[in-house]
Task: inverse folding
């Protein structure tokens, strides 16, 4: 693995009148592991600017305005500017469009796992997977990834086109399909086929490990709007500034049914529901499935996936970042735990009572529990929103005492880790500005449980978000006395493979717990000793 201290991966894109699609596209790519997204707004006249601002304010993307030039190099110049901005902060960059969704089936759809496994590579060519209209004439409700589920045959000539995932240090001048790489860089597909300079195409097509779902046409109505926007890659006086009807016929291929991204719709919509977005781009309500889908066993990186389900009647809402509360519900129900009042949870590193909470879903159903956080004053908002919970303002460690606590502008970054705090403060952006360093009390978790809810109370669910101090917190439990059924533990690994090889997984396995599934940031551990 590289010792590079930069974040792993970002996306660079340019948008013009993509308002209805931006939020889904951005949320999906953050969900699969991209650390940041830079979007250039190219003189949009729809709600694109408002959506981008809302997403930037909520730390989903960063955005810059970008003026058109009449020479057809608008997009290329934006990419060059993006590379100069992203290179100091990120090891890898993907240059993709707003109608392209990166999919990594070979690595549980986790881009960080994929890049960790390909640490020896400098530039990877990713094949298109072209989707047609699926017979749709007009734009309808629903996500792009839900509405379009018919695609071209894998070896269709259009799928030979490639886009690029490359190390920022390997690029000299970015382009659309053909880039100028540093001397000695090998640009090849994941299967090893070298892409000759200035071609932007492979001889064979591979979708099994990584591919780029390209919703080139969408519906006929949406295609016509796309044509009217013109092409940023063509000069104003170019005869193909507006796409020809032939382009539609070439790309409107509906040869095979492909629902591989539909499984992520519930998690995408759950995240979108948490965001404050212009009303015009709020997605339609998600139809509820009749029964939950099976959960995967997280026995290897390839087996790990991130889908969640809004599966039961009643129009459930997720409050977690990636629908962890709904995933936990499915696991608990299969263990015979009902959602009736009376369940108990622990929320360690609770931070907020509702936003990004893994336990508020259960509070609404009559469960009650113990919420712990060292952030001074955190209990004020908790007791307002969740007055029947027990809130304890303390840090958790394997021994009682005091520790240095670093508080940031955005409390989600608060930590006891001085090294992490220093790195975050150096970044500064997105709420990473350090506000204070204070001494706070810390106590073992078992002692706090004993003094509040009592050691005889059955604990159904534990949510643990302690920014790198998982071992210290878990070691402070008396495992012979307290054995919660299910843990949701946030780990800061850059890849699922790292998480599965972590000390936390080994510790939990030693205590009789197995990792049963994973989302973008959290592992779920189920008690195997019943």
Result:
């Amino acid at each position: 693995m590289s010792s590079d201290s930069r974040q792993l991966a970002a996306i660079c894109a340019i948008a013009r009148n993509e308002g209805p699609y931006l939020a889904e596209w951005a949320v999906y790519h953050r969900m699969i592991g991209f650390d940041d997204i830079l979007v250039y707004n190219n003189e949009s006249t729809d709600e694109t600017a408002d959506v981008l601002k809302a997403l930037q304010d909520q730390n989903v993307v960063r955005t810059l305005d970008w003026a058109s030039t009449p020479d057809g190099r608008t997009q290329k110049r934006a990419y060059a500017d993006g590379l100069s901005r992203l290179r100091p902060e990120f090891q890898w960059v993907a240059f993709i469009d707003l109608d392209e969704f990166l999919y990594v089936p070979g690595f549980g759809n986790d881009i960080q796992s994929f890049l960790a496994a390909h640490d020896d590579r400098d530039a990877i060519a990713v094949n298109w997977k072209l989707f047609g209209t699926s017979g749709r004439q007009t734009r309808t409700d629903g996500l792009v990834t839900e509405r379009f589920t018919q695609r071209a045959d894998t070896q269709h000539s259009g799928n030979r086109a490639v886009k690029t995932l490359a190390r920022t240090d390997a690029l000299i001048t970015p382009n659309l399909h053909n880039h100028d790489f540093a001397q000695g860089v090998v640009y090849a597909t994941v299967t090893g086929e070298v892409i000759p300079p200035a071609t932007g195409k492979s001889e064979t097509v591979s979708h099994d490990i990584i591919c780029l779902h390209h919703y080139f046409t969408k519906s006929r109505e949406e295609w016509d709007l796309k044509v009217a926007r013109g092409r940023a890659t063509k000069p104003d006086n170019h005869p193909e500034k507006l796409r020809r009807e032939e382009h539609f016929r070439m790309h409107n291929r509906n040869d095979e049914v492909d629902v591989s991204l539909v499984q992520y719709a519930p998690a995408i919509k759950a995240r979108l529901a948490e965001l404050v977005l212009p009303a015009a781009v709020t997605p339609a309500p998600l139809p509820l499935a009749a029964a939950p889908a099976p959960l995967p066993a997280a026995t290897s990186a390839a087996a790990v996936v991130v889908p969640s389900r809004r599966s039961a009647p009643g129009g459930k809402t997720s409050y977690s970042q990636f629908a962890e509360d709904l995933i936990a519900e499915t696991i608990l129900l299969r263990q015979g735990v009902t959602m009736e009042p009376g369940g108990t949870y622990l929320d360690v590193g609770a931070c907020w009572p509702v936003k990004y909470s893994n336990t508020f879903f259960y509070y609404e159903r009559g469960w009650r529990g113990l919420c712990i956080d060292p952030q001074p004053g955190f209990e004020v908002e908790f007791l307002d929103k969740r007055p029947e919970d027990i809130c304890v303002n303390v840090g958790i460690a394997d021994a009682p005492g005091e520790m240095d606590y670093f508080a940031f502008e955005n409390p989600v970054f608060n930590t006891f880790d001085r090294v992490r705090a220093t790195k975050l403060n150096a970044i500064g952006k997105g709420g990473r500005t350090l506000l204070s360093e204070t001494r706070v009390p810390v106590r073992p978790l078992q002692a706090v449980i004993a003094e509040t809810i009592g050691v005889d109370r059955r604990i159904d669910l534990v949510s643990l978000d302690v920014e790198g101090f998982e071992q210290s917190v878990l070691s402070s439990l008396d495992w012979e006395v307290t054995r919660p059924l299910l843990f949701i533990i946030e780990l800061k690994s850059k890849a699922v493979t790292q998480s599965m090889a972590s000390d936390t997984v080994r510790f939990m396995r030693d205590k009789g717990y197995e990792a049963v599934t994973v989302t973008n940031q959290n592992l779920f551990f189920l008690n195997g000793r019943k």
